Inverse folding.
């Protein structure tokens, strides 16, 4: 895989060891800890690697802007560094899904299965790009805290947000670990990400698409469109869950992913 051009650079990561490798790529502005409720179950069927992306969690930040290619290469280099030279499965949630598409394009033959959770193939439209600029300006002026408070209620189904204060506190704390550089860098990467719609018909590997029925960030129609576009893909809608369906309904999420992994390992 591509050697890192930044010898000082490193990512922190969790690694469960054992089974088919499954790279778990978190959303924005989160960290590898968003997969904590997946580790106990999924580690029984796969070797889980859950990095903190550049500028997120405990990983190093570099000055913005970032690109989707750079974030994908970071993940591939991490796998290389820890000796994973065989095809692997990728699960990406939201921004993690954008990176999963990029890995699929950049490393032909290496991605053995795709799990696309709460994500979309379409790029940012003009309004979406304006939203990225406003979010970056907010972080620059007021810090990551301001963005976290704005985003947090939208990440969950309304009932989860009302009734699960521990989960909300855990998520807030995780989001606050994102650095200013990391948040602004990732916002730029999302703003400029390519349209992955043309990629859909090129995906001939097993693909599982998962969507929270009450997602307030990405409409379910985006998952339905990916399901239509990717031949042979499966679509699972998780009830009573929003954008972070893996944290809100971990049992249903883990069951869907386990069944999927068993078909490809
Ligand atoms: C995410 O959850 O990763 C982001 O909210 C996705 C996005 O803003 O496009």
């Amino acid at each position: 895989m591509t050697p890192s051009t930044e010898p000082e650079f490193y990512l922190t990561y969790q690694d469960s060891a054992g089974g088919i490798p499954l790279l778990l790529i978190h959303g924005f502005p989160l960290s590898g800890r968003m997969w904590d409720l997946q580790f106990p179950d999924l580690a029984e069927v796969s070797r889980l690697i859950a990095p903190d992306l550049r500028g997120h969690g405990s990983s190093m930040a570099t000055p913005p802007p970032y690109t989707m290619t750079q974030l994908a290469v970071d993940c591939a280099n991490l796998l290389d560094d820890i000796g994973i030279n065989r095809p692997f499965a990728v699960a990406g949630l939201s921004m993690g899904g954008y990176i999963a598409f990029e890995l699929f394009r950049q490393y032909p033959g290496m991605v053995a299965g795709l799990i696309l959770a709460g994500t979309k193939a379409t790029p940012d439209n003009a309004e979406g790009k304006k939203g990225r600029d406003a979010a970056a300006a907010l972080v620059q002026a007021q810090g990551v805290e301001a963005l976290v408070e704005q985003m947090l209620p939208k990440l969950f189904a309304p009932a989860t947000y009302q009734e699960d204060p521990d989960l909300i506190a855990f998520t807030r704390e995780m989001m606050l670990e994102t650095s200013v550089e990391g948040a602004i860098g990732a916002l730029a990467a999302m703003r400029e990400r390519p349209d992955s719609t043309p990629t859909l018909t090129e995906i001939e590997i097993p693909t599982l698409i998962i969507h929270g029925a009450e997602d307030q960030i990405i409409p379910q129609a985006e998952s339905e469109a990916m399901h239509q576009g990717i031949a042979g893909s499966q679509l699972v809608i998780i009830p009573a869950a929003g954008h972070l369906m893996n944290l809100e309904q971990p049992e249903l999420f883990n069951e869907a992913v386990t069944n999927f992994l068993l078909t490809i390992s």
About this structure: The radius of gyration is 17 Å. The chain is about 45% helix and 15% strand. Residues 13-264 form a domain with the Rossmann fold fold (CATH 3.40.50.1820).
